[in-house]
Design goal:
Elements (H helix, E strand, L loop, with lengths): L13 H15 L3 E5 L5 H16 L4 E5 L33 E5 L11 H5 L4 E5 L10 E4 L6 H11 L6 H14 L10 H12 L4 H9 L4 H12 L2 E3 L4 E5 L2 H7 L9 H5 L7 E7 L5 E7 L5 H7 L3 E2 L3 E6 L3 H13 L2
Parallel strand pairs: 1-2, 1-3, 3-4, 4-5, 7-8
Antiparallel strand pairs: 6-7, 8-9, 9-11, 10-11
Helix pairs in contact: 2-4, 2-5, 4-5, 5-6, 5-7
Bound molecules: manganese (II) ion.
Manganese (II) ion binds next to loops.
Length: 338
């Protein structure tokens, strides 16, 4: 297989540098913390678990984690291979005991929650990511903005170490690939994504079952929250924005966590008039988490960055305080800027 187009984003020799770092920690036998970003999605968790499964077979003492307590895995990802090995941040080795931290799909330390303290303590960090907004942290960086998913980079790293894809590793990689490419429908889907998918299917990935679980399964509570959101759907014609929100009370009454409103943006952005879609989700601390999507020309990553968040041109997010009306007004102002 030829090297994928996105690999030109990496420093020459980046995989060799990563391999040397991993060789060194294997020789020392020190534990390796593999961290998905907080509120993990399929790419972050699938990538972290694929690396955990592969690197532990290669002889590393890897511990997969997410830097938040309690550690909550979205229902759609709860059956991923290796998920039973996840440890909450409080159960991990201390920074002075850890040999390496591997971060997966996190654009900056602020996306790592309680794992950021390993970086502050000077634990060597290997960074796998595909966000153009990456802050440049870490010692060895495998950061390729043109990769459709971080799992593509994880797959190449495993390949560089000659670690084969068994069914479990392939399943974790496939979940990241199919979610971050929107079932191979987003613009970021290219030949390398399709070729990796083919290779993973050859390894026995149960793709139809995974797709049904990831995209076509919702709890009744989620559907009722969606009904609330659709009731108050609003269109701002001047900037082709369709937006809505779920209140803190509605989420609390449903007895559900934030992950129950994660996929809502995919319904909202399907509005035919929407160039930009925005969903404001109730954060546990009383503030809001904004999800932004754009259809073809608006760079919502820039909008999110201006609001203190980040992301990609077509999909981004930010945190904000205030009323939904105030936050929408800020987004509209940014969208009006030339
Ligand atoms: Mn990703």
């Amino acid at each position: 297989m030829t090297s994928p187009a996105w690999s030109a984003d990496l420093d020459p020799g980046a995989f060799e540098a990563a391999a040397a770092l991993l060789e060194d920690v294997r020789r020392r036998g020190a534990p390796v913390v593999v961290a998905a970003h907080v509120s993990p999605d399929g790419d972050a968790l699938g990538g972290a678990l694929a690396l955990h499964l592969g690197l532990s077979r290669w002889g590393l003492a890897t511990i997969p984690t997410v830097g938040e307590a309690p550690l909550k895995v979205p229902a759609a990802l709860a059956e991923l291979p290796g998920v039973e090995d996840l440890l909450p941040p409080g159960a991990l080795p201390r920074p002075d005991e850890a040999g390496l931290v591997i971060t997966v799909d996190a654009a900056g330390p602020d996306r790592l929650g309680r794992i950021a303290r390993y970086l502050e303590a000077g634990v060597p960090a290997l960074v796998l990511d595909h966000h153009a907004s990456s802050t440049g942290f870490g010692d060895v960086r495998l950061v390729a903005p043109r990769a459709a998913a971080t799992v593509q980079i994880a797959a190449e790293l495993l390949r560089a170490l000659k670690i084969g894809f068994d069914r479990d590793i392939a399943t974790c990689l496939y979940v990241g690939l199919v979610t971050d490419t929107g079932r191979f429908g987003f613009e970021n889907t290219d030949r390398s994504a399709m070729e990796l998918a083919g290779e993973l299917l050859d390894a026995g990935v149960p793709h139809a079952e995974l797709t049904a679980r990831l995209f076509d399964t919702r709890s009744l509570g989620e559907l009722r929250l969606l009904a609330h959101a659709l009731q108050r759907l609003t269109f701002v014609p001047g900037v082709a924005l369709v937006h809505t929100h779920i209140t803190h009370a509605e989420l609390a009454d449903a007895g559900l966590g934030l992950e129950a409103v994660e996929a809502m943006i995919d319904v909202v952005r399907s509005a035919d008039v929407a160039e930009v879609a925005l969903v404001l989700k109730p954060a546990p601390d009383g503030t809001w988490k904004g999800s932004l999507r754009s259809r073809r020309c608006v760079d919502v990553g820039a909008v999110a960055t201006a609001l203190g968040g980040g992301g990609h041109a077509r999909a981004a997010g930010f945190d904000a305080a205030g009323t939904p009306e105030e936050i929408v007004a800020r987004v509209v102002t940014l969208l009006r800027e030339p």
